[in-house]
Amino acid sequence: MNNDNVIKVTKIQKQFGSKAAVKDVSFDIKKGEIFGLLGPNGAGKTTLIRMMTTLLRQDAGEILLNGYNTLTQSRLTRQQFSVTGQTAAIDQDLTARENLIIFGKLNGLTRADARNRASELLADFDLINSADQTLATFSGGMRRRLDLAISLIGKPSILFLDEPTTGLDPRTRTQMWRAIQKLVAKGSTVLLTTQYLEEADYLADRIALIDHGQMITMGTPSELKKQVGGMQLRIEVTDLQSVPQAQTIVHDALSLPVSTNDQTLTVLIDSTKMQLVAKILNQLHDMKISINNFAIEAPSLDDVFLKMTVGKN
Amino acid sequence: MKLAITKNHIGSNILTMTHRNLLKTLHNPDSLSDVIIEPIIFTLLFGYLFGGVIAGSVHAYLPMLVSGIMVQSILNAASGSGQQLREDINAGVFDRFKTLPISPIAPLAGQLVGDIFRLFLSGVITLITAFLMGWRSTVNLPTLVAALLLAIFIGWSTSWIFALVGLVAKNAELIGSLSMIIILVMTFLSNAFIPTNTLPRFIQTIVKINPVTLTITAIRTILQTGSWGSNATMVLISGGIIILIFMPLTVFVYQRRD
After folding, report:
1. CATH H-level superfamily of A5-226
2. DSSP code of A95?
3. Nearest-by-Cβ selection for B23 from A54, A79, A98
4. pLDDT tens for residues B154-177?
5. Closest CA to A45 of A254, A237, A200
6. What is the pLDDT of residue A11?
């Protein structure tokens, strides 16, 4: 029944001293899915990844990767995935090609196969011109690309990416995104953690929002946005004096609570009230209340994030 | 060849990791400067400063000094393994190795097997420096090589102790300076540089039970008499015991998940 669930995480707990780092987290990830773990700093994202990649032992609960238990079948589990950590974990003293060949051989390739695979990945990740330089000359973006390339040597069915684009410039970030999407197109399953809502929104099929080690909510990006409420109507009047008058008009038309901030009025509305917006504009016009700005906006994941997480501070 | 690789995973994993270590040294030969400079400086300093006082002349002191410096330099070179392991762990490279489906002993053994080159180099540099200062071996080449190999073997076995320290302690620089102090104290409180019969009795007791003394006596006996004494066999057995205890212990600590 759950055959298509590549990753199964059930009721995971982890305690560091007296501090609970992960509390009762469960989720399943299907084959070919990009699953985003989103949360502020210190939410428990990296702890979760470390447990899923056999680096850390959970206190309670079970993690299965392709059916293999991370605690009791660690060797087999390790054949199912690759992981790219927050800091590029590559040898600075070696060249890009040497790094790739060494990890190729550790993944069980013969010397010749490792060489071929290294050349293939160097070309794929646009590193062929710097292939034989040591990493001292590499930019942050090149290191990240090499790091991801190393993770792909064994053609893993599951890929863990812990904040893969933190600290990258927008262009390199887009390159990473494309690389990740290409992978999934070939049938890999990806779990990524990120602090960037934009990234989760763009890449992830489903997102789990975690904070203080707890799962806050889980769903597709649009489902999460719906949880915050439908659309937001925003009107900015020119004259501060007319704010109360405008507030009455909006409130009477929609019968919804209106909040004000300086000259700006905001109301959360859903699609059923959309028709009434025209009426508001007409009435404002009739009462000679001039407006600077008028907008109907969908909530961003930022709104979801801010509304549902408390963060460390 | 292909069959051997698929059959013997541990062997090929260790080989790959050793290759990695040697490649790093090749790209970064500066990292060998400690094992080259240390034996040169110590042989020169001790030879010219204490030769006259202790043995009447530099030339008369060298046969005694060469075995002392050789063991000291090799132990120092061995301590570098712990520091290197800690640096790799702090850089996150070892986390990556840990998530690979490879033998857990491979990343450790690869480091330590590759480091044999450092041990070899420091031993050979000691002999060359002493030779340039006028020391001549009184034994034939195979015997000289046997003495060098025994020193390398005991150095390699202690590198497993340093590896364990590297895994447990968090600060790479602290590991480096602490192990240097320990090795200095251990070699000074041995028969490495001085005849021990003038020492106060309680220091003589410490010197006698110091394993460095046993090692130096064994190597000195080989270099001066050309014969493999019972001391040498004792050193060989001790090295084996150290490996038997510390290799599994180090692998166990490496595999811990917390």
Report:
1. P-loop containing nucleotide triphosphate hydrolases (3.40.50.300)
2. B
3. A98
4. 999 999 999 999 999 888 888 888
5. A200
6. 95
